[in-house]
Amino acid sequence: MGRNPFKEACTTYLENYSINLSKGSLAVVRRRLKIMDRMIKDLSEKGQITTTVPKKFTVDYIYCIYRELVETPGSNGKQREKVTVQKYMNDLNNLCRSHGNFNVEVMYRRFPMAKKSHHKRLPVLNLDQIKEIARKGMEVPDTDRRRIRAYGVVGIYLGGGTRTLEVQHTRASNVFLSSEATPYIYLDYVKGQDTYGEERPEALIPMFVPLVERYLKLRETLLEEANAESEYYVFCLDSFDMLSDKTIRLIRKIVEEDTGYYFRWKSETGFSDFKEIFPETVTATSVRSMVLEVMARTEVFNAFKRGRAAIMKVTGNGVEVA
Predict the structure, then answer these.
(1) At what angle do helices 127-139 and 209-226 cross, to 10 degrees?
(2) Distance between CA atoms of 202 and 319, rounded to whole angstroms?
(3) Which parts of the chain are beta strand (E)?
(4) What are the backbone dihedrals phi and psi of residue 299, each rounded to the nearest 5 degrees, phi first?
(5) DSSP-based three-state secondary structure for 177
(6) Closest Cα partner for 105 from 64, 63, 68, 71?
(7) Pairing verdict, β 200-203 and 184-187
(8) DSSP label at 206?
(9) How far is Cα 90 from Cα 104, in angstroms, rounded to an integer?
(10) Considering the chain, what percentage of its residues have pLDDT values greater than 70?
(11) Residue 22 Rama label (left phi>0; alpha psi -120 to 50; beta)
(12) Segment 226-239, tens digit of pLDDT
């Protein structure tokens, strides 16, 4: 080992696992490991740990690192949220496991309070709530550019079922609102971009199209006033470049606070009643593949239930098989 064993171990780990991660995910993991590298150096200099070799991290050393993540402020000067600390610990766990050290799991068993409790997912919005979000977006005054922009982002989030990463990379030229066909956006940068991800079109739910149209007009005005150009649907107002995922979430928060509805992004498009959302707004052809997929998944799940019920009947639990 050289002068910085932890950094060397991180470099090896990232090289070995780069084929399993997209470039975006790899950059995020690299950033978190870099922050932990500085943190572990400080702990070593203070004498709280005596080694910076991941393979030799004891349970007590790992708990010390965990406490440091919890107690020290993040880059924004605020205490890290539990879910953020858990992401750091997941990276540390993967790094240690790659060197044959499983003490992160042992630490969780010894200090169960360190394990992030499973949080309950927010309930899926019903149709009336979704309609209210779309309606409130159109009630925003023309002078309130901040909220018009925020509702424009929500227009492709809820309206198109996109992810944060996909909203970041959406190009304005890939938003198609022609009245001659179903409005849609084409996502040429998706989750798992360098591995399993595939480019795809996403139909926009019609009730959100006016929000998108209104934002696009504002977008054009902003660029004209600044005599600037940007390829992105939503961009940084200073550099006109891509926004960070954190900024996208802050923009989301504007709408959440404005409407009082706190919603999940990608999963929010899995509305509880598909027929209510798409009665006469999307052609049968455009949803045919989705319906076929749902039917296939339902059949597989029903087959599993039948098999499970048969097993339970054999074991004497009295479960009848339909």
Answers:
(1) 30
(2) 42
(3) 175-176, 184-187, 200-203
(4) -65, -40
(5) coil
(6) 63
(7) antiparallel
(8) G
(9) 9
(10) 76
(11) beta
(12) 999 999 999 999 99
